[in-house]
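Quick one, tokens below:
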């Protein structure tokens, strides 16, 4: 990366070097709206979709040597990416790294595998335990980082081990206990580690019973949540004593709209992004919801949706 002058020239040079060496995709200025469930978000300087471990082994040292920061992307179902986009490289493992292999009563699953597919493979294998994650639209990588789950269980109940890479490509194997799990929290958050795969400990079960439980949970979800809209799931984490949605509802937020972003009237903790929504609209609306709950109940809700990218230009609008 010796001759580049200026950040754009450096990124062009890095992209060229990666295109020469990677089998997977290398794109410049990829709109992140294409890769998030909110369908908003500006361009990533570099967008990389390595196909396998060998591709990762090539790209990590190149990025590290050029000083290009790295952001991991799963299915983009818990992210609010800034309209200004993401500086540096976004690396997405899905749809590769998606193997699902049964070994005894465990499943060895790649970080790029979609949770929904893993749940259905478990059903086909007569393995129970994963039903609690039914309907969560993420990947295994995102689920491990976020400790995805519902009120009847989380992925942390099942993780035996996970194989990760450091940003410079060194392998690390962590046990479930190492991951420091609690509600929607893990030691992976902010660690810079790249999750490659996980071994999930399941239990033998009756297929009919597993299927019935999955159907019950799916019905519950579709009756309570706006599942067919552009959202990122729950905007705020639930405080220990009450659902965040109840506080937001009682603070009178349902159906409030800022620009193209609206508080769902079906579930007050969900923000719906209409086709004209920007990431800025969504962030303003989340800020407004937070303030309404604070003013009404003196409660400080914590964001569950993760802010990603270049938010430097954002300012809270206290008049909204
Ligand atoms: C309709 C809807 C319903 C939802 N319901 C639920 C629910 O019931 N329960 C729940 O917990 N969540 C729910 N969510 C939120 C979301 O689906 C989960 O947080 C999910 O686990 C995110 O996975 P993802 O692959 O989309 O990760 P992303 O949103 O892409 O990323 C989440 C985090 O994981 C990191 N990451 C992703 N992959 C890797 C990797 N391989 N290595 C290292 N870091 C990685 C990212 O950098 C980011 O920090 C819902 C979302 C929607 C849209």
């Amino acid at each position: 990366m010796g001759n580049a002058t200026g950040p754009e020239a450096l990124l062009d040079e890095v992209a060229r070097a990666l295109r020469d060496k990677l089998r997977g995709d290398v794109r410049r200025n990829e709109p992140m709206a294409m890769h998030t469930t909110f369908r908003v978000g500006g361009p990533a300087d570099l967008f990389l979709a390595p196909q396998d471990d060998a591709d990762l082994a090539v790209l990590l040292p190149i990025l590290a040597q050029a000083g290009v920061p790295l952001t991991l992307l799963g299915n983009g179902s818990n992210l609010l990416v800034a309209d200004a986009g993401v500086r540096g490289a976004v690396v997405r493992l899905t749809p590769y790294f998606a193997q699902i292999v049964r070994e005894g009563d465990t499943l060895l699953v790649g970080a790029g595998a979609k949770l929904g597919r893993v749940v259905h493979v478990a059903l086909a294998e007569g393995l129970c335990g994963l039903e609690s994650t039914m309907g969560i639209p993420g990947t295994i990588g995102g689920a491990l980082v976020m400790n995805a789950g519902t009120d009847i269980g989380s992925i942390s109940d099942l993780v035996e081990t996970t194989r990760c890479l450091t940003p410079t490509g060194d392998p690390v194997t962590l046990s479930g206990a190492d991951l420091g799990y609690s509600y929607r929290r893990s030691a992976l958050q902010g660690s810079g580690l790249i999750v490659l795969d996980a071994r999930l400990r399941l239990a033998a079960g009756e297929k009919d019973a597993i299927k019935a439980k999955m159907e019950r949970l799916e019905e519950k979800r579709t009756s309570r949540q706006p599942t067919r809209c552009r959202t990122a799931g729950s905007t705020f984490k639930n405080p220990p004593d009450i659902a965040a949605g109840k506080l937001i509802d009682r603070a009178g937020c349902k159906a409030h709209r800022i620009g193209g972003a609206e508080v769902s009237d079906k579930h007050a903790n969900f923000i719906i992004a209409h086709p004209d929504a920007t990431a800025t609209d969504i962030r303003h609306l989340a800020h407004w919801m937070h303030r309404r709950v604070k003013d009404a109940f003196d409660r400080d809700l914590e964001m569950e949706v993760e802010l990603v990218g270049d938010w430097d230009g954002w300012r809270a609008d206290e008049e909204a």
